[in-house]
Description:
- 41% of the residues lie in helices and 19% in strands.
- By secondary structure, the protein is of the alpha/beta class.
- The chain has a single domain, classed as FMN-linked oxidoreductases (TIM Barrel, Alpha-Beta Barrel), CATH 3.20.20.390.
- Strands 1-2-3-4-5-7-8-9 form an eight-stranded parallel beta barrel, surrounded by seven helices.
- β8, α8 and β9 form a beta-alpha-beta unit.
- The longest helix has 18 residues.
- The two termini are 24 Å apart.
- It binds SN-glycerol-1-phosphate (1GP).
Amino acid sequence: MLYPTLLSRYNQSKMLIMLIDPDKHDDDSLLGTLKIVNQNPPDVIIIGGSLVSKSLNESISLIKETTSIPVFLFPGNLLQVCDQADGILLISLISGRNPDYLIGNHVLAAPFLRKSGMEVIPTGYILVGTGTKTSVEYISNTTAIPASKTDIVVSTAMAAEMLGLKLIYLEGGSGADSPVNKDLITAVKKNISIPLIVGGGIRTPQQATDAYTAGADIIVIGNVLEESPELLKEFVKCKNQFYNFK
Ligand code: 1GP
């Protein structure tokens, strides 16, 4: 089970999640990436995207045959829910007010998830506006919370914890022009006691270090590792700076 591990580690060590969008890979490029992954393992691989045209099961099988890293679904929609993964970040898009992304899709997925036996981690997903409108905003028909509205972002994270969600995912959007700002990360971290994930627009080890230092327990890197998988080594090194930091 992943969540108990996250809980036991998150106040002592930082963690790194690699996001794989199956549409960005053919089998050869995925295998090439996984070779690098095995040399520089992230803690978790999540798989998904706003629009995915392939069956996720094939990519997940390949990942699981090649590595022993836990693979979790990070589904952009119901078409990305399958049963080959170790678990799912069951995302509730709490920055938005679209009932389908708050509860509707979850109702549809629940019987399948129960039957699959996969680990389900209820995750409060807060989309923060960092500039350009993101794919998630458009596809989910929701509006991101402006990055300047710290009080709204913090209250949203607090409400998520009070409702029993187990992780907060502060998201700038895949390929965001800039990552979620440090002050906002610190403000959220101070007001919750569940693990905080930060992702979107983190492209350099310095940006990763800044996010960790500001209070992110876990960071997610997607785009830049698709372009340059060899950078994984740098991000793992950066995470390891925080080993036993308390
Ligand atoms: C997207 O937070 C993730 O949901 C990763 O973002 O692709 O910009 O790294 P990037």
